[in-house]
Design brief:
Layout (H helix, E strand, L loop, with lengths): L1 H18 L1 H4 L10 E20 L8 E22 L4 E13 L13 E7 L4 E21 L3 E20 L9 E20 L10
Antiparallel strand pairs: 1-2, 1-7, 2-3, 4-5, 5-6, 6-7
């Protein structure tokens, strides 16, 4: 009798955990993390980018997804903040942009000049990467600060070519990512991005 009851309880637990993985399987000590982002870009060409923000796993917390894909001219400013702790979590986001369609024609000749960078902070749970290929002209100023409490990434790029930018903030392998970004830009790009993640103040980034 007791074996049957325990078996039923086990089956119900496994079923509930499968349907709502963020409610049971997540460690209570796993925090999503804190993120502040400022980004400005002026772009002409073809682009495909996406950002995901969240303050909780599964059907918990707040979620936001935004992205742009296609050819044209884009002038865009974005700002976002994700904050979580044991008792409180919130999210704020703003996007201002002007989007104009224009077909993109790639250049007839290709360049073999490339440049790439990847930085990780395992203490904070953050990574950022930038890679440039088919470079006809590149002016970049990348600044990175990482310690046991915070990661600060600053990218300032002017490019004629192809850029791939990606970043992720995830405090542990068992927690959900607070922030995921991936973008490909083919054409003429002017980009300024500031990203801060970690346990330090999320209000220390300057306005763009």
């Amino acid at each position: 009798m007791f074996r049957s009851v325990w078996l039923i309880m086990f089956v119900l637990f496994v079923t509930f955990a499968y349907i709502f993985p963020g409610s049971i399987m997540a460690d209570e000590d796993d925090e999503i993390g804190n993120v502040t982002e400022h980004s400005w870009m002026y772009f002409q060409g073809y682009m495909d980018d996406m950002r995901i923000y969240q303050t909780g796993e599964g059907y918990e917390g707040q979620k936001l997804v935004t992205g742009t894909r296609g050819s044209g001219t884009v002038s865009r400013t974005m700002g976002a903040q994700v904050f979580t702790n044991d008792d409180y979590r919130d999210m704020s986001f703003n996007e201002w942009g002007v989007y104009s369609y224009k077909p993109y024609l790639p250049p007839l000749t290709q360049s073999d000049l490339k440049n790439a960078l990847c930085a990780k902070n395992y203490d904070v749970g953050s990574v950022i990467s930038e890679s440039y290929s088919n470079i006809r002209e590149l002016i970049k100023d990348t600044n990175i600060f990482q310690d046991q409490q915070v990661s600060v990434y600053e990218i300032d790029t002017e490019l004629m070519g192809t850029a791939r930018i990606g970043s992720r903030v995830q405090t542990s392998s068992s927690s959900a990512p607070a922030y995921v970004m991936g973008g490909t830009y083919v054409g003429n790009l002017n980009l300024r991005t500031d990203l801060e993640a970690g346990n330090a103040s999320i209000l220390t980034l300057p306005c763009p």
